[in-house]
Amino acid sequence: MRRSSSxxxxxxxxxxxxxxxxxxxxxxxxAPEKTEAPASTDTxxxxxxxxxxxxxxxxxxxxxxxxxxxxxxxxxxxxxxxQRAMAARYAKLLAERKTLAGDDLFYLAMLYRLAAxxxxxxxxxxxxxxxxxxxxxxxxxxxxxxxxxxxAEMEMLDEAxxxxxxxxxxxxxQPEGRLLAASVMASAYRQAKKxxxxxxxxxxxxxxxxxxxxxxxxxxSERVESIKTVAALxxxxxxxxxxxxxxxxxxxDLRALSFELPSPALFRQSERMAASLGIEERDLKTDRASSAxxxxxxxxxxxSEWIDQKPVKLADLRGRVVLLDFWAxxxxxxxxxxxxxxxxxxxxxxxxxxxxxxxxxxxEAEGRELTPAEELDYLRRFKKRFRLPYGFAISETDDNxxxxxxxxxxxxxxxxxxxxxxxxxxxxSRSEEKEIExxxxxxxxEK
Length: 447
Known about the structure:
Elements: H1 6-12, H2 46-54, H3 56-66, H4 73-95, H5 103-114, H6 118-130, H7 138-153, H8 157-169, H9 175-191, H10 195-211, H11 220-240, H12 244-260, H13 264-276, E1 305-307, E2 321-326, H14 332-336, H15 338-348, E3 353-360, E4 364-365, E5 368-369, H16 372-385, E6 391-395, H17 399-404, E7 411-415, E8 421-426, H18 430-445
Parallel strand pairs: 2-3, 3-6
Antiparallel strand pairs: 1-6, 2-7, 4-5, 7-8
Helix pairs in contact: 1-3, 2-4, 2-5, 3-4, 4-5, 5-6, 6-7, 7-8, 7-9, 8-9, 9-10, 9-11, 10-11, 11-12, 11-13, 12-13
């Protein structure tokens, strides 16, 4: 697996992020502790206290990346624990004030939420909403979403459903808010074995996921996790209800969404779900991209250097079939695919196939540390040694890996003449190669 900014990636996968206290790093150095004012003299506003806690994790992870602190689950967990402790301390400070009203109650509730104090958070959100904040109110809508989640956690399904109804009656509404409300209720009803209600909310969530605009790259991991959760829940429910056709349709939607984002993780999940349901790959209908012109296009390539290829954008290659091969020079399975890629280039180049080898600078090769210039020279020699006739795009960042959701290599993307992803392949097996070549032929035959 490729190197990456592990703390920032961990941050992208988290639902909550927060503020600055210096902690012990793995190097053994102890950073200076921040001196805090006694609670009785801390007169900062409720919003200022919440904002400090809210940004804590983000700032800590950014600090760890700057200081090159190795990622560990233990250190990440410690950082979140510090955030919870800070949130509890500031919530106690706020609760002792005698004049809390309006938005101060909202921030108190949010602090309780970050402190994982569910009972106090639920009561504070209800107190805030009892003040009848005027609509439209983002804070009021956030409070209703939080109440849905809290009541569902506490198995108070009627209260959760009432909070959902209140959310849907008020403004502003964001698609993400409706999605969260539906998916939380679907999971809660599944837990309560109310399968028909769970299916109703689950289908609502999936339809929202299919119609949401493409996420920003920093929000993509969260979107992927939402899709995986909803799809898994629906397949489980349809299986319980003995509705195989509906379960298959969910897998087909999952496969199509994996192309549209794009996301190898969703593609892999669709493969596993199909296998668990006994569905053959050839029986899945996931070809929305073959005719739709309004589907999102894959991210543009980010490259600092090119080898045997003029700098090019995917938009410049519209009208051709493009194969993106994500690989690394130290990856044995990647190297095993080179003869096949060379064969495809020679066989299909004149018919419109363009292959681009997508790789990164890694700072080393064959046990030696290399500067970017030295590694570029190494890659030129590497390319000649393996007689690879197609171009390389080399990035000095992880942008392509993040944008395309690369978690393992080799990973292959096939993009059709309209610019849509039509196949994602993970690994280097012979069956994968047969599937890729069959799709290459199919896409080259399309007008």
